[in-house]
Amino acid sequence: MSLQEFVDEFEGSNGELVLYNDRIPCYKPEAPPIRFEESKVQIELLHEAQAALKELSELIKSRGFTPTEWYTTRIAISACNLESGGGVVLEDFKLTENSNVEVTDSKGGTGALLGLGSRNALIWSNKNLADSEFRGEDLTELHDMITLDDIEQKGFRDEVIFYGDNSDPDYIPTNPELIEDMVSGITAILNDNQYVDVIAIPISNYYINAVSPYTSGNMRLSCIVDSLLFVKFDILPAPILDLATYFYENTDEYYNHLLNVSKKGEWDEWLEFYLNAIIEQAEEAKKEMNELIELEEELNETYGTDTVMSKTAKLGFIKTLYTPYDVQNMLDEEISIDEIESNMEELEEEGILTQVEDSPKNYILTTFIENFNHYDT
């Protein structure tokens, strides 16, 4: 099915999606649909993106670990920074003795809390929605998670909202009375197997932002849904493609492309931008995975494949943050917290782990810290 046929089918479900007063995208029966073309450049980019994703998927499946928790944390932080303009950092989070993730007392503030909500939403969606039909209620539940169940933000918005200056807005999202039908259209398409392809995801991202079903959190929500869809569509085995960071690093371009789809119908430019994001971030993820593979080989050579030291370090492959208590719960043998702390201190001296919190002691793989700091978050 061609890209144009995809959009025609979507827009034909409840009428055609058109621009109303040059700003408001809404359903208007029997109006001409937005058009875009399958350019040669776009098709080449699509094939390149599919190839990059396939290589990444095969690399992940070939290993005995998947750093899902690490990527969900970074995606959540970047999604918050994308929407708010920045300020949330990895150091805003810590683990308790019971392995609950919390926001540190002295840092982060509301932004970090929203980052934590976004992280929890992505983890929940991967566990509960990847293999099931995606419903409008699920979209709302994800939204409620990322907005920390704020009672004032629950449910679809019932007021007109503006992006930009209210007196001369850049964009006015879909009229409130049309939101429920629009969300039904989005979820119906995403549940139909004939539309499962890389190209459906940027279309979903655009529509979630264009419709903006909720008072706030729509941009974060679109990033969370993107990550989920790569798993739901069997493109990747886990939500490890960090497009949110790419969008945050290219914020102006991201906003402008979304806006120009609504104002000028520039689907080509938006899809090319999105496909380039997939290609770049898939390559970045492969590089980071190969760094972990090299580290795994070094650990096996230095400490053995199945020793306490090796297991202690490798727990960091699957957990973003972890404490001596996590190590103790993971090990088959009984080892005191003091001994585990001593082992983790030795791994820190070797540059393998980095301590980021003192009470309780929180550790993270140093390579994750370095990769996170590679991005200007």
Poorly predicted runs: 9-36
CATH homologous superfamily descriptor of the largest domain: Fido-like domain
Inertia-based shape: globular
Strand content: 5-15%
Total beta-strand segments: 6
Can you name the CATH architecture of the largest domain?
Orthogonal Bundle
Please state how the strands of the largest beta sheet are arranged side by side: 1-2
Give the count of helical stretches.
15
Oligomeric form of this entry?
A: single chain
Q: What is the domain tally?
A: 2
The mean pLDDT is 80
What is the helical fraction, as a range of percent? 55-70%
**CATH topology type of the largest domain:** Fic-like fold
Question: In terms of structural class, how would the helical and strand content be classed?
Answer: mainly alpha
Give a description of the structure.
By secondary structure, the chain is mostly helical. It has 2 domains: 3-284, Fic-like fold; 287-374, Arc Repressor Mutant, subunit A. Helices cover 57% and strands 7% of the residues. It is built from 15 helices and 6 strands. It has a two-stranded antiparallel ribbon. Strand 5 (353-358) and strand 6 form a beta hairpin. The model is unreliable at 9-36 (pLDDT under 50).
Q: What is the element layout, followed by pairings?
A:
Blueprint: H1 3-11, E1 16-20, E2 24-28, H2 40-61, H3 68-84, E3 93-95, E4 101-103, H4 109-128, H5 136-146, H6 179-190, H7 200-211, H8 218-232, H9 243-249, H10 251-264, H11 267-303, H12 308-318, H13 324-330, H14 337-349, E5 353-358, E6 361-365, H15 366-374
Antiparallel strand pairs: 1-2, 3-4, 5-6
